[in-house]
Design a protein that fits this description.
Strand content of chain B: under 5%
Strand content of chain C: under 5%
Oligomer: heterotrimer
Number of helices of chain B: 24
GO molecular function, one term (chain A): NADH dehydrogenase (ubiquinone) activity
Distance between the termini of chain B: 37 Å
Number of strands of chain B: 2
Structural class of chain B: mainly alpha
Distance between the termini of chain C: 27 Å
Number of strands of chain C: 5
Number of domains of chain C: 1
Family (chain A): Belongs to the complex I subunit 3 family.
GO cellular component, one term (chain A): plasma membrane
Largest interface: B-C, 34 and 31 residues
Subunit structure (chain A): NDH-1 is composed of 14 different subunits. Subunits NuoA, H, J, K, L, M, N constitute the membrane sector of the complex.
Chains: A mainly alpha, B mainly alpha, C mainly alpha
InterPro entries (chain A): NAD(P)H_OxRDtase_bac/plastid, NADH_UbQ/plastoQ_OxRdtase_su3, NDAH_ubi_oxred_su3_sf
Structural class of chain C: mainly alpha
Helix content of chain C: 55-70%
Strand order of the largest sheet of chain B: 1-2
């Protein structure tokens, strides 16, 4: 009865194990050279935001654009994945639908590119 | 096209033409007058063609408008509507003649003024002619708009306030009436399966409706008409409107517009909801008698000439409501003819008062005194108008008032006796006004000030040199005489020989009585 | 249990039958969406000086073609059908609403496109965003970073704010407003045709997101405009969340997001009423928010006030149509069987909306805020028709939407004409004595205000008449009486403006009336003509609105 779920459970276990293993092994095998940046809170790889009241620091607008694009591509993948899984049964109709989807996504990307959204400066 | 449609369309066309003649005021004025005279001729023809013994509605025409709701643009007149339309047609040239030289607020032209008056005329004619409840409502509301601009655009210093108050009162009343009309429609759908706003059909269907339904429908219509008529306590817009509106517009307001209210009682309230009308008649009668007494006392106490006119009208509308809701043929004929006679008598009074104000430049009664020494003709005119207003035998109003009182007495003795007190009060306030304005030595800031500057004393001989060209305060000129003369003729003519009008009105009143389903408690006295 | 399992395993690879699609039926929506996408491409590739004309042409042409496609389809359409696996219902109300939206969209695009009233258009210029007058200016978009694509015109791309005013006519407006408006319109069309709640939600987002952006693009009074956009966005997000939550609960109740299935479920009685009540409540709150029905109106005055006037017109007219279209469909298709549960709640909401609109409208001193409160009152009147669950109620509400939409677009068109050197003179004091300076504009505006007040011989009156007569026939006499009294009270604040325009002396340094360009003139004329026509000869539109009910 539960046969179909066993691979799933195994998958979960593997993922969990890998995470624990990575975290656990790193301090054991890696070198320890701390600096200010390394001790700071981790926020997507750039300088962390200053506190809102005392700071007054702003994020570059371009950052938000890039982040937004990242999310958009993410979402695109999220939608493509289920299609990929059942591509066979959906047939040509599915291909047409997904092409339409990707093309309309592509339009936005083209617009972004042409209007300079990809240039950092 | 029936004569009736012509009566509606001619002033409308006139209004457009006058409105387009922006360049020359004189041409605009003459055109407006020509159209109003043409209207008068058509009205006379319509009267001539009316057959009192004929069908209930005559000159009928009907065009489908909104078929989904059974709404038709249908028009027709019975005797009551016909005489009212005739009155409008008669008053309009006089009003135009009166306003010929009126000083208007800065930036306004006579062309615009007359154009709006003609639009108002077309709409009021159409209101009286409508035989579809929906169409009646539509016109009832639309006719507010030109009047709103007439008061607000051409009136006195507080004209904005008066115009908005006038509009909102009537608009609210109209909307409540719309609720009733929708209720009537919904009832018709329920009973007959077919919705309609046709007056005759609704009269038939609603006549059999249970009293509870009728009461609600009656109340909605009643509120609208009571505001319009106006009955105390829904009257407060009228004094403000008459005080601020130009005199010509006041004539239309009290002479024509307000009659839509009493006409509505006769045409809509009674036939549509006969049982509720009788059930709630005491309510109306109480308001009517209060109106008579309150209006008379207020008129007596007024210090402002134009507000005086408003309260005189309120008192008279009380009489009309009394006659209508007394439910006897005589009283109702009296009320219907009173609608005409009031327009003539009060219309004349308004015009005369307007001529007085034009001379003195003030609306305060205290600013006048002893005018008849200076302007004897004007004094005479005020006397004629006043005597008609107080219903002196031999004047037109007497016939109506007498019919109302004698017709109401058998059915409603108490109210009738109370209203009779109003007759006495009318004599008091009219003569008191005449005495203050016309009699005695020449006095009052307005008159004397106009002659010699403030604070001076005056000698009647220096104020007016009869026949002289240098009269400071002149007597009536030819144009003014021309405006008043037809009214004098009617006041006396209809006082002595009212039959032509009563003959037209009576069959329609009898039809209304039979629609209500009441018979006269006593046989009408013979010999008329 | 069974099907769920099979799906989870992803083993059963039977070919899926694609659902049949009635392309003719949904052609207008497809056309609109395509045009919006093309609009994006235009933005990306055309040089700046060509964009405006191409975008305007594209938008207007598409609206016309979509209208023709709609007309061609409607001619032969029966009572209606559902397509795209039952997610879209193309029935007679849908066709009417689509027609209304396309026509209103056409008028709105005309207003948006105008560049002569405000030099260069009422929207931020291309180059304006980077040098915006406020810190928030940066939020308005992509051009914050100037790139190689703009190199060709780099010399004019970074002027100072003062220069912007002088050169506005040259640098032109942000032409993205056109694709945004087209996307929004497409969303609206789907919104009122959606036959299941999930489609409806997606459409809600498609129509809302471009609107949030459009609100923030005013060239003048940037802060006000951006504040409006943020407010609208935040509150709109809230409302979407409400809608979504209600959707989820209704799904939990009925096991389906399809309106028909929910209707079937409510007809039975063995399910949890809690889920149903909570679901209906939350869902309807989301819808009422979009329709700016009081007491869910709080955003309306601020947003109407802050947004560029042309966008306000678009929003006020089209969003109202779409939102009420959806409300009608949800109430009549999904929730009719449970009407006893929500009827008196919405009854109260309608009264509240009228009261809020009228009472607060009386105190306004800014004309755009006044019209905003008027729209809240009108939403109350519309709701009166919407909760009369009869054919007459449906067609009356549809007619009202058509009438109100055209009047509103024209009203905002006129508002955009009355200006000082600082921009539009929306404060009422500026309107004093307008009739002396510009009799025609004053007369037109008076007519439109009278229509909003519901004076006979205008479309506003006929709309009210249809809606109220349906309500009376459905037995809601007290509600109608309240509505009529509210109409009378509302007339006061319309009259106040008329008094100001006609009976007051103009102020010495008052605003002037711009000579409208061809586009604005066309939009206002269209609105006025329709307002008059529907008032005098309502039967044509009525017959169209009255042909049939919803299918599901």
């Amino acid at each position: 009865m539960l046969d179909p779920y066993i691979p799933l459970v195994l998958m979960f276990a593997l993922a969990f194990g890998f995470a624990v293993f990575s975290v656990a092994i790193a301090p054991l095998v890696g070198p320890r050279r701390y600096n200010k940046a390394k001790l700071d809170a981790y926020e997507c790889g750039i300088e962390p935001s200053p506190p809102p009241v005392t700071g007054g620091g702003r994020m570059p607008v371009a950052y938000y654009l890039t982040a937004m694009m990242f999310i958009l591509f993410d979402i695109e993948m999220v939608f493509l994945f289920p299609y990929a899984v059942s591509a066979d049964s959906l047939g040509m109709w599915g291909v047409a639908a997904v092409v339409l989807f990707v093309v309309s996504f592509g339009l936005a990307d083209i617009y972004l590119w042409r209007r300079g959204g990809l240039d950092w400066n | 096209m029936t004569l009736l449609l012509a009566l509606i369309l001619v002033p409308l066309v006139g209004a457009v033409v006058v409105g387009l003649l922006r360049g020359t005021d004189r041409a605009a004025k003459l055109t407006a007058l020509a159209f109003s005279l043409a209207e008068l001729v058509i009205a006379a023809a319509a009267w001539g063609g009316y057959d009192p013994a004929g069908p209930r509605m005559q000159l009928t025409s009907s065009v489908e408008w909104i078929p989904a709701f059974g709404i038709e643009l249908s028009f027709g007149v019975d005797g009551i509507a016909l005489v009212m339309i005739a009155v409008i047609a008669l008053l309009m040239p006089l009003v135009l003649g009166f306003s010929w030289g009126e000083r208007l607020p800065r930036g306004r032209t006579h062309g615009g003024f007359f154009s709006l008056l003609l639009v108002e005329q077309a709409l009021t004619v159409a209101v009286f002619a409508a035989t579809d409840v929906f169409v009646f409502y539509v016109l009832f509301e639309i006719m507010l708009i030109p009047m709103y601009f007439l008061i607000g655009g051409y009136g006195g210093p507080r004209r904005r306030y008066a115009a908005v108050k006038f509009f909102l009162y009537s608009f609210l009343g109209g909307l409540i009436m719309l609720a009733s009309a929708l209720g009537a429609y919904a009832y018709a759908v329920e009973v007959t399966g077919q919705g309609t706003f046709d007056w005759a059909t609704l009269t038939r269907v609603l006549g059999q409706a249970p009293t509870s339904v009728q009461v609600w429908i009656f109340l909605g219509f009643f509120l609208a008409f009571a505001i319009k008529a106006p009955l105390v306590p829904f009257h407060t817009w009228l004094p403000d409107a008459t005080e601020q509106a130009p005199i010509g517009v006041v004539v239309i307001v009290v002479g024509v517009l307000d009659k839509v209210g009493t006409f509505g009682f006769l045409r809509y309230s009674l036939p549509l909801t006969p049982e509720a009308s009788q059930l709630l008649a005491p309510l109306v009668l109480v308001l009517a008698v209060i109106g008579v007494l309150y209006g008379s006392l207020q008129a007596y106490g007024q210090t402002d000439l134009k507000r005086f006119l408003a309260y005189v009208s309120i008192a008279h509308f009380g009489f009309m409501a009394l006659g209508i809701f007394a439910f006897s043929t005589q009283a109702m004929v009296g009320a219907a003819s009173y609608m005409v006679n009031h327009s003539i008598a009060t219309g004349m009074l308004v015009l005369v008062v307007g001529l007085i104000i034009a001379r003195g430049g003030s609306t305060r009664i205290a600013d006048y005194g002893g005018m008849s020494g200076v302007t004897p003709l004007l004094g005479g005119m005020l006397l004629v108008a006043g005597l008609s207003t107080l219903s002196l035998p031999g004047t037109n109003s007497f016939v109506s008032e007498f019919l109302v009182l004698i017709g109401s007495f058998p059915t409603r003795p108490v109210y009738t006796i109370l209203a009779t007190v109003g007759m006495i009060l009318a004599a008091v306030y009219v003569l008191w006004l005449y005495q203050r304005v016309m009699q005695g030595p020449v006095s009052g800031d307005a008159l004397v000030g106009a002659a010699k500057g403030p604070g001076a004393t005056a000698d009647p001989n220096t104020l007016s040199r009869p026949g002289g060209r240098h009269a400071v305060i002149g007597d009536l000129g030819p144009r003014e005489l021309g405006v008043l003369a037809p009214l004098v003729v009617l006041v006396i003519g209809l006082g002595i020989y009212p039959e032509p009008m009563l003959d037209v009105i009576t069959p329609s009143v009898e039809a209304t009585m039979s629609e209500v389903g009441v018979t006269d408690p006593v046989a009408p006295q013979g010999g008329n | 249990m069974g099907p769920v399992q099979a799906g989870a395993v992803v083993l059963a690879q039977q070919p899926v039958e694609p659902p049949p699609i009635e392309y003719a039926a949904i052609a207008p929506v497809l056309l609109m969406l395509t045009a919006a996408c093309v609009g994006v491409i235009v933005e990306a590739f055309l040089p700046r000086h060509q964009r405006w004309s191409v975008q305007v042409g594209l938008s207007l042409l598409t609206l016309v073609v979509a209208g023709v496609a709609l007309g061609a389809y409607a001619r032969g359409a029966g009572t209606g059908l559902t397509t795209l696996a039952g997610t879209i219902a193309v029935d007679t109300p849908t066709l009417f609403l689509w027609g209304t939206l396309l026509a209103l969209g056409f008028a709105s695009i005309l207003l948006i496109a105008d560049r002569s009233v405000e030099q260069g258009g009422a929207f931020v210029a291309e180059s304006d965003a980077s040098s915006g007058s406020s810190g928030l200016g940066a939020s308005s978009g992509l051009s914050a970073s100037s790139g190689p694509a703009r190199g060709a015109t780099a010399d004019s791309s970074a002027p100072s704010p003062t220069m912007t005013r002088a050169t506005a006519g040259v640098s032109g407006m942000r032409t993205e407003v056109f694709p945004l408006a087209m996307f929004s319109l497409s969303g609206m069309m789907v919104f009122c045709a959606a036959n299941d709640l999930l489609t409806m939600f997606i459409a809600l987002e498609v129509l809302s997101l471009p609107l949030y952006l459009l609100c923030g693009l005013a060239k003048r009074r940037r802060l006000l405009s951006q504040e409006a956009a943020v407010k609208y966005f935040l509150l709109g997000a809230f409302a979407s969340a409400f809608f979504l939550y209600g959707l989820a609960l209704l799904y939990g109740y009925s096991g389906s997001v399809k309106l028909a299935a929910i209707s079937e479920a409510t007809a039975g009685s063995d399910r949890s009423d809690t889920l149903l009540f909570a679901g209906i409540g939350l869902l309807v709150v989301g819808l009422l928010f979009k329709a700016s029905v009081g007491p869910f109106h709080a955003w309306t005055p601020d947003v109407y006030h802050g947004a560029p006037t042309a966008v306000t017109g678009f929003m006020a007219a089209c969003t109202k149509v779409a939102a009420f279209g959806a409300i009608l469909r949800v109430l009549q298709v999904a929730l009719e069987a449970s009407s006893w549960e929500w009827h008196y709640v919405l009854w109260t909401v309608a009264v509240l909306s009228m009261l809020i609109g009228v009472v607060l409208g009386l105190t306004q001193t800014d004309i755009k805020r006044m019209i905003a409160y008027s729209s809240i009152a009108h939403a109350g009147f519309l709701l009166v028709g919407a909760i009369a669950l009869t054919d007459r109620g449906l067609s009356g509400t549809l007619f009202y939407l058509l009438a109100y939409g055209f009047t509103t677009v024209a009203v905002f068109g006129v508002i955009s004409l009355v200006r000082t050197s600082e921009g539009e003179a929306t404060h009422l004091s500026g309107w004093a004595g307008l009739a002396k300076r510009s009799p025609l504009v004053a007369a037109v505006f008076t007519f439109l205000l009278l229509a909003l007040a519901g004076i006979p011989m205008t479309s506003g009156f006929m709309g009210k008449f249809y809606v109220f007569s349906a309500a009376v026939t459905d037995g809601m006499v007290p509600l109608v009486v309240i509505a009529l009294v509210a109409s009378a009270a509302a007339a006061f604040f319309y009259l106040r403006v008329i008094v100001l325009m006609y009976f007051n002396e103009p102020a010495a340094d008052g605003p002037t009336v711009s000579v409208p360009g061809a586009f604005t003139t066309a939009a206002i004329t269209l609105g006025v003509v329709v307002t008059l026509l529907l008032g005098v000869l309502p039967t044509l539109a009525w017959n169209w609105a009255n042909v049939g009910g919803f299918v599901s």
